[in-house]
Amino acid sequence: MPQRRSPGAESAYDRIYAVVRRIPRGRVSTYGAVARLAGLPGRARQVGYALAALRDGSSVPWHRVVNAQGRLSLARVGSPSGITQRLRLVREGVPVDGGDRVSLTSFGWKLRGRT
DNA sequence: CCACTGACGAGTG
DNA sequence: GCACTCGCCAGTG
Predict the structure, then answer these.
(1) Which of A15, A51, A69, A101 has the fewest CB atoms within 10 Å, i.e. the most exposed one?
(2) Could you give the 3-state DSSP secondary structure of residue A73?
(3) Residue nearest to nucleotide C7 (CA to C1')
């Protein structure tokens, strides 16, 4: 093991993963929102970087994170995982249109839990 | 150390 | 809705 971390000092990645794990099934959140909830306002890019570092089989529901426009960024960059993301979302009941977009208005994760 | 890239966001035209 | 700019930060060469 490389280095031991100081107690209470979690890495930014750990906090990001912790937030993503809290996104309810059938709902989606955005990179910016996750960053903010993780205590990293303005660092949405780092959220994307953290998710990109995830491996298959991780307990982090990364497919529930889309960009601020409601688009599947993964599909936008032509990544094959975009198909997986779309499939998983639809399977959870989140409709994805032909432009790889989801309605944040209806399915965006709101802490208020309004329906 | 510098330049470039990338699962992003907000602002402007 | 689209194109462009700037801000942010980690990783790579």
Answers:
(1) A69
(2) helix
(3) A42
pTM for the model = 0.89
**CA(A112)–C1'(C9) in Å?**
30
A89, A28 contact by CB (below 8 A):
yes
Count CA within 13 A, CB hemisphere, residue A105.
0
Which residue ranges have CB below 7 A from strand B?
Answer: A 30-32, 44-49, 51-52, 54, 62-63, 65, 67-69, 73-74, 76-77, 79, 81, 85
